């Protein structure tokens, strides 16, 4: 019995190990995991339940409904090794309808040398790699304490002569409660937020 259990465990572990190896290098558009906005970053990216500005386009589309006037957000984030990230977004409030937003994220990896097995120090050619995502967002307060939002997103990656693109959807809800409120109102109570991000087609 002990031998049989040992064999089963070994087979399970081997299967998991094989699956892990097969998944290497299969993810794309990882730049979508980079947070937007200095405020959310300072909060450790715990922003889904308190999103209330243009950066809601990224964190939780439902948070865009908290805007009461047209707003815009521009962000430039320098990274290591000549990598630069740019975000530009804006939102417009349409009375009795909701809030419409547009956000564009662009990541530039700079120029790199083309290398081959024969010319490992470079062939003399240079190439660039970029990532881009454009989101169109709609958000609305269903009632005073419940907001819903969704985004349609186009994602594209380019590297030298190759490119891939995909479409994705973001969905979010935001609920204002009276829990832990000092005044008994929803304004300073516990907020509950949920967001589903980047659900869509494969990059191809």
Architecture overview:
Pfam families: PorV. This is Type IX secretion system protein PorV domain-containing protein. InterPro entries: PorV. Strand 1 and strand 2 form a beta hairpin. It is built from three helices and seven strands, in the order H-H-H-E-E-E-E-E-E-E. It has one domain. About 8% of the residues have low confidence. It is elongated. With 204 residues, it is mainly beta. A seven-stranded antiparallel sheet has the order 1-2-3-4-5-6-7.
Task: Give me a quick take on this structure.
It holds the Pfam family PorV. With 204 residues, this protein is mainly beta.
Overall average pLDDT: 86
Tally of strands: 7
Strand content: over 45%
Strand order of the largest sheet: 1-2-3-4-5-6-7
Largest sheet: 7 strands, antiparallel
Radius of gyration: 22 Å
Low-confidence stretches: 5-10, 13-22
What does the overall shape look like? elongated
Structural class: mainly beta
| Domain tally | 1
Q: Helix amount, in percent?
A: 10-25%
Number of helices: 3
Reading the helices and strands in chain order gives HHHEEEEEEE
Distance between the termini: 49 Å
Characteristic terms for this protein:
mainly beta, 3 helices, 15% helix, 45% strand, PorV, Type IX secretion system protein PorV domain-containing protein
């Amino acid at each position: 019995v002990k031998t049989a259990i040992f064999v089963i465990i070994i087979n399970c572990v081997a299967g998991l190990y094989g699956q892990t190896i097969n998944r290497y290098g299969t993810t794309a558009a990882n730049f979508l995991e980079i947070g937007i906005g200095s405020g959310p970053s300072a909060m450790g990216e715990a922003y889904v339940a308190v999103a209330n500005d243009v950066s809601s386009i990224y964190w939780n589309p439902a948070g865009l409904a908290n805007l009461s006037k047209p707003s815009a957000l521009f962000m430039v984030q320098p990274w290591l090794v000549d990598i630069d990230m740019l975000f530009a977004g804006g939102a417009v409030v349409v009375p009795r309808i909701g809030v419409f937003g547009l956000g564009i994220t662009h990541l530039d990896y700079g120029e790199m040398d083309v290398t081959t097995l024969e010319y490992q120090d470079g062939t003399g050619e240079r190439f660039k790699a970029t990532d881009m995502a454009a989101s169109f967002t709609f958000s609305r307060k269903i009632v005073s304490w419940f907001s819903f939002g969704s985004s349609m997103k186009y994602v594209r990656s380019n590297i030298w002569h190759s490119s891939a693109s995909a479409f994705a959807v973001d969905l979010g809800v935001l609920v204002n409660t009276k829990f832990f409120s000092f005044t008994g109102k929803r304004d300073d109570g516990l907020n509950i937020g949920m967001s589903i991000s980047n659900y869509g087609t494969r990059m191809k």
